[in-house]
Amino acid sequence: MGEKKLRVKKAAGCASLLGLPAAALVMYIAWQHNPGGVFYGDDYVNWAHWSLYGVAYYLMVGGPVFVARLFFWRDEPEE
Predict the structure, then answer these.
(1) More confident residue, 6 or 29
(2) Is pLDDT at 63 greater than 80 in this prediction?
(3) Where are the domains of the chain?
(4) Has residue 11 got a pLDDT over 90?
(5) Other C-beta atoms lying within 10 Å of the C-beta of residue 13
(6) Which of 15, 27, 38, 42 could form a disulfide with 65 if both were Cys (CB 3.0 to 4.6 A apart)?
(7) TM spans, by residue (predicted)?
(8) Residue of 68, 58, 56 lying closest to 10 (CA atoms)
(9) C-alpha to C-alpha distance for 34 and 32, rounded to whole angstroms
(10) Which one, of 50, 52, 58, 51, lies nearest residue 21 by Cα?
């Protein structure tokens, strides 16, 4: 049971290592572009819409990495 938890932690770590910077970059680009005041205006920030971009890109980049790391990349046994 402990080995499976370790594999999930490693997979989540790899996914986050790639997914979080991708999500942050897309959110930064969306914030800078902000067509027609969609994400923010003078007196508001549309957190739901802006955060959706970050979550979507985190899942698009981190999801496949998580699955690949969990099921296909095997750690070499320690001797």
Answers:
(1) 29
(2) yes
(3) 8-71
(4) no
(5) 12
(6) 15
(7) 12-31, 51-72
(8) 68
(9) 6
(10) 58
- Which run of H or of E encompasses 29? helix 2-33
Q: How far apart are CA 42 and CA 34, in angstroms?
A: 12
Tell me which residue has tokens 């970050």.
54
Look at residue 3 in the predicted model and tell me its pLDDT.
Answer: 79
State the Rg of the chain over Cα.
17
CA-CA distance, 9 to 15, in Å (whole number)?
Answer: 10
Name the token pair of 11: 């997979």
What integer pLDDT is reported at residue 75 of this predicted model? 66
In 3D space, the residue among 61, 3, 2, 65 whose CA is nearest the CA of residue 27 turns out to be: 61
Report the chain's terminal Cα–Cα distance, integer Å. 20
- Which amino acid type is present at position 37? G
